[in-house]
Structures are given as C-alpha cells and as structure tokens.
Specification:
The complex is a heterodimer of chains A (about 210) and B (about 725). Helices cover about 30% and strands about 15% of the residues of chain A. Chain A is an alpha+beta fold and about 210 residues long. In chain A, strand 1 and strand 2 form a beta hairpin. Chain A is globular and about 50 Å long. A 6-stranded mixed sheet of chain B has the order 2-1-6-3-4-5, with helices on both faces. Chain B has a 6-stranded mixed sheet with strand order 8-7-12-9-10-11, sandwiched between helices. A 3-stranded antiparallel sheet of chain B has the order 16-17-18. In chain B, helix 7 (about 220-235) runs antiparallel to helix 21, helix 20 (about 565-585) crosses helix 22 (about 625-650) and helix 20 packs across helix 25 (about 685-700). Chain B has 4 domains: about 1-210, Aldehyde Ferredoxin Oxidoreductase,  A, domain 1, CATH 3.60.9.10; about 235-330, no CATH class; about 350-395 and about 395-475, no CATH class; about 510-725, Aldehyde Ferredoxin Oxidoreductase Protein, subunit A, domain 3, CATH 1.10.599. Classes of the chains: A alpha+beta (about 210), B alpha+beta (about 725). The interface between A and B is large, with 53 and 62 residues. Strand 3 of chain A pairs antiparallel with strand 13 (about 215) of chain B, so a sheet runs across the interface.
Chain lengths: ~210, ~725
C-alpha cells in the first residue's frame, strides 16, 4: 500500500505504537486527526497544519513537542543530565533547549527579533540514523525497543555522530569523551512544567482514536 | 569545572579580572570561602578583605563580585539567580549592597566553571568580559558602547555564538547614573547602581558560555526532592499556594494573588492558537508553569490579549515574566515585544500624574488605548522596555514615586526653573498630559543621558533629596520632609534613600526590622509570600506559622499586635534567610517553602528543604542549623561593614540612631486609628523601640548602638571584624 493511502487510512486503524513509528518525526500536516486525539495531545489544528508540533514514538507513549508551550526553564536539560549523567549540565543534555534560547542558528531566541520563539530539540530516533551510519566503531545500535543507544565500550569520542546528525543532537561528553544521545528515558517530559514536552501513554492514544 | 575537579556543588574556581592591567587570574573557592557559602557570602568576604569601606564606589579601587553558589545550576528549582556585591554610590553611608540578576546567566557562569568573578581596576577603553569555559578574555566593546542594552545584548549574542548568554549595561551605566543596572535575558536586571560601577570601569558587560557540568553527589535525590517540591509545596509566583480562580481540586480560592492560571485564562497570542491555562492541581508537575500568569495579576484579564508565553529564570517552574506582544505600541513607533515582572512594568502610571488643564482643574493624564482600563499595561510595556534599554534602575519604584511627589507638590517645577531656566518649557509635558507612551521613554532617556536638572532623579532618593532640599521641610516649596510625611506615594522606609520591600505595610514589626538592616531595599519575601498567598489566615497561615515559630509570631493583615519573642524569632529567620538565598543561590521571591499546596500535608511546608538539597548536592550532611549558622555569619558581616562604612563615611558610631531610623509616616499614617487597632498598619513608637531592643539582643548586638559585640562575632569566627570595630572605636 502506498504511503499516501497509508496516511489516508490512518484514522481507520487502531493506533498502535507500530503505526506511529511509521510517521514518527514526520509532519502530521495533511492527516485528518480527530478532535479527541487532538485533545489528548493537547495541540491545536493550527499547530498541526503549520507543522509546529512534532510527535515521536517512545516505548512509553508518544512524545509530543509543543513549541508554543516552552517557557525556557531548561528543566528538561537539568532532568536529563541528573538522570543520565549524575550531574547537572546543559551542553551534554540529550534534549537541547539552551542553544535555541538566546540566539539560535535560525535567528530565533531572546536576543533576536523573534524573541519569543524558543523550544527544545529532541532526538528523532531515526529509523535510518545518520549518527549510527557515520560511526566508525559501530557504537550506535538499536536495542529491542528500537531505541538508538551508544555502546560506550566501543565509542572513541570522535564526534562523527555529532557532525552527521542533521540536528547535531549527540554530544561528546568532555569529561568521559563518549558520545551521549537520547535514550528515550522520558525524564525531560516527566519534569517539564508547561507540557511543552509530554509523553501521551499509548492506551490514551488508542482510546482517543476509538472515540466517536 | 566541578565534574573534572571532583567538588560537589561548587564550581571550585573564582575568577579575578583586572581591567587596568588586563590580568586574568583564578583562585580556589574552597576552603577559604566555604564558611561564606557562595554568591553574596563570597562577595562580602572579598570586599571586607580587599576594599576599604571609604573607597570611592565609582573610583579605580572599587570592585564588584559576581557570585553564584553551590545550589546554582545544581538541578534545584528556582536556583537561577546571580548575586553581584558592590559599594553603594547612592544610599546613606555609601555602604555594602548587592544587585541580583535572574535570567539564565547564573547557570551559564556555573557551567563555565566559576563560583565568582571579582572585577577590579578600570579599563581605558570600552570592553566586555568574555568567558568560555576556562578561556576568559577582555574584548573590545567600542562597537556597542553607547548602545541600548537590547542592541548590545543582541550584538554580543550574535557575534559570540548561539550558546552564549550575555548581559550589558545601558547608557545610564555608561554615564555613571547611580540609578542604573545591568540587563540580561529579556527584562532581567541587576540593580543597585551596578551599571554605574561597571560604567566607571568602562565594562559594557559579559558574555558567557559553559560546556561544563556541576557535580552532584546524589543526583537522583536532587531530582526526587525537586519533583516533591514542585508537586506538593510550591505554588505560583511569590509562592502563592492557593489559586485565585476556583479550581476543582482546591479547597480554597484566593481573592487576588499571583496564581491567576485557571480554565478560561489564556495566552491569546500563542503563535499557533490560544492556549488555555486550565487547572494546575497540586501534585502535578506538568502544569506548574501555567499557574502564575503575571500579566493577569498586574493588569487584569486584558493582559491575555497580548500574552505570547511566560518566561523567567533557569530551573524555575513558576515563570513570572509574562512575554507580551503589545500591538498598540506600534502606533507610536515603539517596540511591541515587552516583558518585565515588577516595578518597571506595573508602576508606569506614576510617570503620568494628574495635571492642571487650561482652567486650572486637576485632570487625569492617561486614557485607554484599545480596551477599557489598558493604560496601565500599555504604558507599562513602553516604560519597562525603555527602562531596560537605557539601563535605568528604579530603586524598587522610588524613582517614579519621587518624580510623582516632586511634580505634584510643585518641587520639581520650582527646582528646575531656579536651577536651569528654560529647561521646564523644553520638557515635552504635552506627551505626559496626553498619556502618550513616548513620554515615559523620554523620561528614561533624560535620566540616562543626564540631561538637565530633571535627570537629578537618577541620583537616587538620598542624593536627590539632599540636592533638591526634599529632606528638610524648610528647604523646599512644599514645606515637607519627603522621607517622613504621610503621603500615599511615600514608600521611604527610613532616611537612607530606599523604600520598603516589604515592611510595615504588610509584615508588622518583623518586616520593619529586617527592612532596616540593609543599605538598599531588603527584598525579603519570607513573610509577604505567606501573607498574600491566598491561604486563609485563621485556617492555614496562623496554624502553619505557629507550628514553626510559636504562638503569636504572625499578625493578620491590618490588625497588628505588640511585639513578642516569637515575632523576633520569625524576623530573624527571614533576615538571615535572605543572606542564605543570595549565597546559595535561591530565588528570594520563591523560597522558603513555608505553606504547601498539598492538602495531604495540611498545607504545612518544608523549611528543612534547603538543607536537604545541600545534603544531596554536597554528599555530606548539611543541617538547617548549619544553614542558619552560615547565614548568620554573612548577616553579621553585613552589619559590621555597615557600621564601618557609617563610621568612615559619616563619622557615625551609632547604627541604631543613624542607620535604623524609621520614617515618621510609619507611625503617623492613618491618624484616625491608634496602633494595633483593626484596620490600620501603623506602628507604635514605644513598641518599635522595644522591638529594636529585642532584635538587637536576638542578633547579639549592643542595645544602644546596634553594633555587633565581640562575643557575637567570635561565635562566627569573625574576630578580625571585632578587631576592626575596636580600632574604629565602635565597640
């Protein structure tokens, strides 16, 4: 079945994680999303149409990033590094908001003309990951849930993954000299005080899709 | 950085930048500064050791100390503030004060690997200090000298790269205007005249990038404590713990407070569709940032129309800076993107007092813009952006109150016409009288550029009143002493040149006592936070506070009672607690967690939380007693330095008489009432003297002079302070 037909039939099927994996990271624009699912995702039709909401399939549920809700508190980075690195940092955080907060490469942020536009970048868990493909040590692998992880025994900290990723999401930790990337632990969303990052559990997605 | 050097909490390094010689050196934070914690504590110890207290605050030997503490950027919520210690160039005694700056730069500084930066000397040309991890350089700033802070910050951010945070002074600081600040993020400022100090050093500002990390001994414990705090304890801005619009989960509802978020309260200018703030139940993290909606508190629901989102400081879930896009300002060719959380945006009507029309009638100067009652907001937007751009500090509103009182009383006109004939006619009064937002912009321009006698307002209350005779009823046309007279615009707490923040108007003798302890406005919110929390007094506030401090420690609003020991205990907790916040660093507007949002906890907060964070971060036990002992050490040092300044600069040997004197209006207001009657907040003079006696005893100070005794100072290992006081004949 073609991708176009797949997308048209989106609403006909029960939502499962496998279904969302197909559209994970891709634009939702053009899909007829039901209002009950819009409610569950806490996003507007306009956000979807203007491509300002992205969803990624995590084991726990759907990660939804709503840029209008990001309030620049940086707690996503704090929670990420407390959980995964045992310290507090912005640079090695696997979710990245600080680089968009001041004056980002897109000319957005507090010190630009577009000063109220700032939001976190998240790892896309690409099916065909540029980071993994670039790694000379084959240190980036997919675990049984499809999460791309770094095998720190193999990683030599060369930074090829950082350069290869179109969004420069991995970071080579300056202390451990190992690449660190998002492993979908969900700490960022759990601790986000505005719901800019949220994980909607799969059973809520399924029941929303079934609502008349 | 701390992960490399193995230190928990602290970054471990203090920078020293000498702008005369260009030398940049580094020192270890520990063990020397361990008893002083960080931030303000480090600043005070450095100034005590290195800067004689009769040093010209804007001279080549003056120094300032930027500082953060072991809890800054350690994952703790509301730890995004930076302290800057300096000598005051504008308040009585020219003594020790601090500026404080929010936004994100404290975290950047800590991640770069520093606990403090001492700035000394003076450059002979405009420079800024660039910090990129271990690389610190002094860079040329000629291209941004003379620019407003918005343009200067944007330039530095663009030039240095996306991960740099920046802070700059404006023309006010460059022109050595005492009422000047440093601006970072959007609308976050450090005040106290730091702009003038940096201007005197030709230092335009700083640019900081940190790729480092802060080492945490027990990171999951910090995360768990943070989650617990956000779920069960913290409320909205100023820790208001009861929502102002009924929510289904909440037992209580407030009358008017800083928790305005609720179903139907919206961010109308969210770019992709209105966001409804909905309910924000206690126990849920993911909605905490939807609570405050400062704009609605400040201006009413008309603020929703222009609200894009809510901003604030690193690590804080509360977001007390409403970020606006105010369309009406475009008609006046003024920027529409504005944001501020306090005086600069909420008090701009003070620049628009009633004026006399052609018939000599007193008429309002303001009008609605697009909606009924929106003048306060629109003028606020224009004023705050102008104030921040010019880098003008307002001395917690005294700047505008002094203008308002001087204008209304005729003093302004009298002084200007006498001192500079012709100036009055050139001032664009028509803009003020027509409620034009460009009036307030022009006021700030005049002050920043030191244009005319009008710009004496930028001297700050103490020096302004001296110059214009406002401190002596026989020397001004109004025949008033503007420190003392009963007037709704007179917020002076004493004769020192700064206002209450928050003192007798809400916080009985306790607030008045700690208001007098500084050389600028005290900024202590320990008491005002629970007073205004929205929680009912008899059901929650009284029982919770008495649970912590004993019977009679609090009074209800407008029904004070005579002083007692438990009120003194409460006052001391708040006073030393402020030093704790500015050393740790934690936000003075949010901590402590006194009243909780959680009904399960019977709304009782957790005053041991700060010590729990320290223990988790440091990996060694740090108790509340430790916290209070270290905080009191810094408090004693503050008092010692105040005493020394007053001796060297004023010849004073008695702080009780010369520093702690409270303005008459505190006792004389509301003449139809007697003190301690229901309906008044006036205090009683005799009761006040008794309060001072008990306060000095609690602090270990001489009852007559209010100066710390040697015995007290030795308790805190401040024997060298006692030596100095003895040398000066103060003890």
């Amino acid at each position: 079945m073609s991708e176009v037909q797949d997308r048209k039939k989106f609403l006909d099927k029960d939502y499962t994680r496998r279904q969302f994996l197909k559209i994970s990271g891709k634009s939702l624009a053009g899909l007829a999303i039901s209002s009950s699912l819009l409610n569950v995702l806490c996003v507007s039709e306009k956000s979807i149409a203007e491509d300002k909401v992205r969803v990624w399939a995590f084991p726990q549920g759907l990660l939804v990033v709503d840029m209008d809700r990001c309030v620049g508190c940086q707690r996503c980075e704090i929670n990420c590094t407390l959980t995964n690195d045992g310290c507090c940092s912005s640079y090695i955080s696997r979710v990245k908001v600080t680089r968009n907060l001041y004056s980002s490469r897109n000319g957005q942020g507090l010190y630009t003309e577009d000063n109220w536009t700032y939001f976190p970048d998240t790892c896309r868990q690409c099916e065909d990951p540029a980071c993994g493909n670039a790694c000379p040590m084959q240190a980036i692998y997919a675990d049984e849930n499809g999460i791309r992880r770094v095998d720190t025994d193999k990683c030599v900290g060369c930074g090829a993954c950082v350069q290869a990723c179109p969004w420069h999401m991995p970071t080579v930790n300056p202390v451990t000299h190992k690449s660190s990337k998002c492993i979908m632990c969900g700490a960022c969303a759990e601790g986000c005080p505005s719901g800019a990052l949220s994980i909607v559990p799969w059973d809520r997605i399924v029941s929303a899709s079934q609502a008349v | 950085m701390s992960v490399k050097n193995g230190i928990n909490g602290w970054a471990g390094t203090i920078l020293r930048v000498n702008l005369t010689t260009g030398s940049i050196t580094k020192e270890d934070t520990l063990p020397k500064y361990r008893p002083y914690i960080g931030g303000m504590g480090i600043g005070y110890k450095v100034i005590w050791d290195e800067v004689p207290l009769d040093t010209d605050p804007l001279g080549p030997d003056a120094k300032c100390v930027f500082g953060v503490g072991p809890l800054t950027a350690s994952g703790v919520p509301c730890s995004g503030r930076m302290n800057i210690t300096l000598l005051s160039c504008w308040s009585l005694g020219y003594s020790i004060i601090d500026a404080h700056m929010g936004g994100h730069i404290a975290h950047a500084f800590k991640y770069a690997g520093y606990d403090a930066m001492i700035v000394e000397g003076q450059s002979d040309h405009p420079v800024y200090i660039k910090i990129e991890d271990e690389n610190v350089t002094i860079e040329d700033a000629s291209h941004i000298w003379g620019k407003g802070t918005f343009e200067a910050n944007a330039t530095l951010a663009k030039e240095n790269g996306p991960e740099f945070d920046v802070a700059t002074i404006g023309p006010a600081g460059e022109n050595l205007v005492p009422m000047s600040n440093i601006i970072t993020s959007f609308g976050n400022s450090g005040g106290g005249g730091i702009g003038a100090l940096l201007g005197s050093k030709k230092c335009k500002g700083i640019a900081v990038r940190g790729t480092g990390a802060v080492k945490i001994a027990r990171p999951m414990e910090v995360r768990l404590l943070s989650n617990y705090m956000i779920k069960d304890l913290v409320g909205g801005n100023n820790n208001h713990t009861v929502p102002c619009h009924a929510q289904s989960w909440s037992e209580y509802v407030a009358t008017k407070n800083r928790w305005q978020g609720a179903p139907g309260i919206t961010w109308d200018k969210a770019p992709h569709g209105q966001i409804d703030t909905g309910e924000q139940p206690s126990g849920v993290i993911n909605v905490a940032a939807l609570r405050c909606n400062k704009g609605v508190f400040d201006f009413g629901e008309v603020a929703e129309k222009y609200t894009v989102k809510q901003g604030g400081c690193s690590s804080c879930p509360v977001r007390c800076y409403t970020e606006y896009d105010m369309d009406p300002l475009a008609e006046y060719d003024l920027p529409t993107h504005v944001s501020n959380t306090c005086m600069p945006i909420i008090k701009m009507l003070e620049w628009y007092p009633n004026h006399l029309d052609a018939n000599g009638e007193s008429v309002p100067s303001t009008h609605d813009f697009a909606d009924e009652g929106d003048a306060k907001m629109i003028l606020g937007g224009a004023g705050s952006r102008a104030a921040d751009d010019y880098g003008v500090w307002c001395n917690y509103g005294n700047l505008y109150e002094d203008f308002n009182m001087a204008y209304t009383s005729g003093v302004l006109k009298d002084v200007i016409e006498r001192e500079n004939p012709g100036e009055w006619e050139k001032i664009p009064w028509a803009l003020m009288e027509s409620g034009d937002p460009r009036w307030v912009v022009d006021c700030y321009r005049r002050i920043a550029m030191r244009e005319g006698i009008f710009s004496d307002l930028g001297l700050g209350t103490y020096r302004l009143y001296q110059k214009w005779g406002m401190d002596d009823a026989s020397k001004n046309v109004a025949g008033k002493n503007f420190y003392d007279f009963v007037n709704g615009k007179n917020f002076n707490i004493g004769h020192n040149g700064f206002p209450r923040h928050h003192g007798p108007e809400n916080c009985w003798q306790a607030g008045t006592l700690y208001s007098m302890m500084y050389n600028r406005d005290c900024m202590i919110h320990h008491l005002i936070n629970f007073c205004s929390s929205g929680a009912p007094y008899n059901e929650i506030i009284k029982p919770v506070l008495e649970h912590f401090f004993g019977e009679g420690c609090t009074d209800p609003q407008k029904h004070y009672t005579p002083i007692n020991e438990n009120k003194i205990k409460l006052a001391k907790w708040a006073f030393i607690g402020k030093q704790w916040h500015d050393s740790a660093t934690l936000c003075n507007w949010m901590y402590p967690m006194t009243i909780a949002t959680s009904k399960k906890r019977q709304y009782i907060g957790d005053l041991d939380l700060d010590a729990k964070y320290m223990t988790a971060v440091l990996g060694e036990e740090y108790t509340r007693e430790d916290q209070e002992h270290d905080s009191e050490r810094i408090s004693q040092l503050l008092r010692v330095m105040t005493a020394v300044s007053f001796k060297l600069n004023l010849g004073s040997t008695n702080l009780r008489k010369d520093h702690d004197r409270v303005s008459d209006w505190v006792f004389d207001k509301e003449p139809d009432f007697k003190p301690f009657e229901e309906g008044t907040v006036k205090l009683d003079r005799e009761d006040w003297e008794k309060s001072l006696d008990m306060w000095y005893e609690a602090m270990g100070w001489n009852k007559e002079t209010g100066i710390p005794t040697r015995e007290t100072l030795e308790k805190f290992d401040l024997g060298d302070c006692a030596d100095k006081l003895e040398e000066l004949g103060l003890i």
